User: Fold these one by one.
Assistant:
Number 1:
Amino acid sequence: MDIEHGLRGPADRHRPLLPADHEEHGQTPDRVEIIAKGITLALIASGYARENILVAQSLAITVIVVDVAVIATALAIIISINRHTKSLDVRKLTKLKG
């Protein structure tokens, strides 16, 4: 890995990480994930600054557990949709209306 170019190759050094049309192709960055990581880091840093690291670590672990529960629930919904429609095509979700 070239230190000057990081993880991208030399041909990519002038290209932005996210092209201007990234939202059209479904490649939007997961902003919620970035915010959750920032909150976890802030909890740990504030606990360290206040010399109460155990409470901060407990809260950070709680944030991580809730995040995993949300991901597991979303995955369960996706699996259920795939079983009912035999596809992950969004247009076929109208059959699931009650």
Number 2:
Amino acid sequence: MNNIKELRTEMVEVFTQLKAEKIETKRAHELSNAAGKILGTVAAQLKYALQRGEMPNIDFLNVEETEPYVVGEHNFAYIQKQVEEIEEIEKDDEEDVAADTPT
């Protein structure tokens, strides 16, 4: 996978396979966890840029969309919201891993 759209497509495929019982739950969890780690690195890069007041150019996110992206002050709030959502997903993944880890 080379970008966020491809990651999303692959994760939808994992979900579809899991739902159809064509992939083991453990394997799907591992793939989901790895995807979360990838998104975590993007979130960290976005956070850093936001702290510096910059609009980063992240190749992983640079994909053509059907709607144009308008750069402006409101976009920082939007990006911050996206970062928070990614952090929440990461937190849930970490809790899932902790719950699955034998003590």
Number 3:
Amino acid sequence: MPVKELVQMKTGEGAPVFLIHPIEGHVDPLSVVAEQLSSPVFGLQCCKDAPMDSMEVLAAHYIKVLEGSCYSVSVIEWSLRTHG
């Protein structure tokens, strides 16, 4: 399980982009995406202290983490969710 919630994945120019972890909880699988962007890239990871009550609670937690980052925020989320 990741130790840090917010990690810098890549330096760059312009407004930063924040990538949200896939189901594994860490942003390692998203390094290929980060490398394709010219912006600085940060990853949000799911640490042991993350609230897992619901997606809404986890999203609210991540919003608080991002608000503390001192950046305007663009978020990219990756989901394998299927629709029936």
